[in-house]
Amino acid sequence: MPLLRKAGLMAIAFFAFTFAGSLTARADLIQLTNVQLSGQGIGATLTVLTLQNGSPTTESAYVSYVGGTQQTVGDFSPPPGSPKNQTFTFGQLGITNANQLALVVNLAEANNEVPAQVTTVADTGLAGDSAANYANSITLNVFSSTGTLLQQHSLAVGTVLTQDQSGVGGSGLVFGLTAPQAAALQALFLAQPNIVLTVGASFTGASGGNDTIQAVRIQPVPEPMTMLLFGTGLAGVAAKVRRRRKAAKA
Ligand SMILES: [Ca+2]
Ligand SMILES: [Ca+2]
C-alpha cells in the first residue's frame, strides 16, 4: 500500500474514532432510533415522571428518594406517587442488565402543535436538589436502598425533543444509556441489587397537556459508536477485497 494512502486511511480512522468518542462523551443518555416499541421489543413499562408546564413554558420536576423516602418536587402532575410519579427498580421492570433500561418520552402540546416539541434545559434550581441537579435535561438518578445518591446519567442540555408519531410505533422518543454508562450502572446493580431509580427532567417550550416519561425494558441495541466502528471495519474489509481482486487481475 502506498505510504500516502495508508496515512490517509489512518487519518480517516482516527477522525472517525475521535468523532464517535466525542459524541458518546457528550451525554450519558442517548436517543435510540432503532427500537421497535410495538410487538416484542418492549417489556414492562412504568410511568415515572409526569410534567406539567409551569411559568410560563418551562417545566421542571423530579422524583426524590433522598433519605429513603419517595417524594416529587417541581412542576409535576399529581399524584406524587403511582401511577404518575414514582421511584422504580430493575426488579419492577424485569431488568437483569442495565443495557435493557430505557426511558420513553411522550409529549403533549397545546393547540395540536404538530409535531409537539420541547427543548431540554439545565435544572432550574428546584428545592432540595441544589447540590445534585436531579432534573438536569433528562436525568436518571440512582439511589442506594437507604436513599443515598450513587449515580446520575443525563441527556445533553439543549436537546430538542420532537415527538415522532411514526418512528417507534407511535409510542414516543426512546433514550438509553451509552455502553460505558450501562456498564457502570450494571456494576453498581451487581454490588447493590436494591438500588432505587428516579427520573427528573426540565423542558422549555412546553405547553398544554402533561408530558410523561416512562421507564421500560427493551432488548439491548448496538449504540452508534459500535455501529460506526463496525461500519469502518466493513469498509476496510471491502477495500482489502478490492485490492486483492485488482492484484489478481494484474
Ligand atoms: Ca406539554
Ligand atoms: Ca412546544
Average pLDDT for all residues: 83
Q: Low-confidence runs (pLDDT<50, min 5 residues)?
A: 14-26
* DSSP strand content: 25-35%
Largest sheet: 7 strands, antiparallel
Number of strands: 12
The shape, in one word, is: globular
Order of helices and strands: HEEEEHEEEEEEHEEH
Write the layout of secondary structure elements.
Layout: H1 3-26, E1 29-32, E2 42-51, E3 59-64, E4 71-74, H2 90-93, E5 101-106, E6 117-120, E7 138-143, E8 149-154, E9 160-162, E10 173-177, H3 179-191, E11 196-204, E12 211-218, H4 224-249
Bound molecules: calcium ion (2 copies).
Walk me through what this model shows.
It is built from 4 helices and 12 strands; from the N terminus they run H-E-E-E-E-H-E-E-E-E-E-E-H-E-E-H. By secondary structure, the chain is α+β, with helices and mostly antiparallel strands. Strands 3, 4, 6, 7, 8, 9 and 11 form a 7-stranded antiparallel sheet that branches. Helix 1 runs antiparallel to helix 4 (224-249). It is globular. Bound molecules: calcium ion (CA) (2 copies). One calcium ion (CA) is lined by residues 109, 113, 117-118, 205-207. One calcium ion is lined by residues 53, 107-109, 206-209, 211.
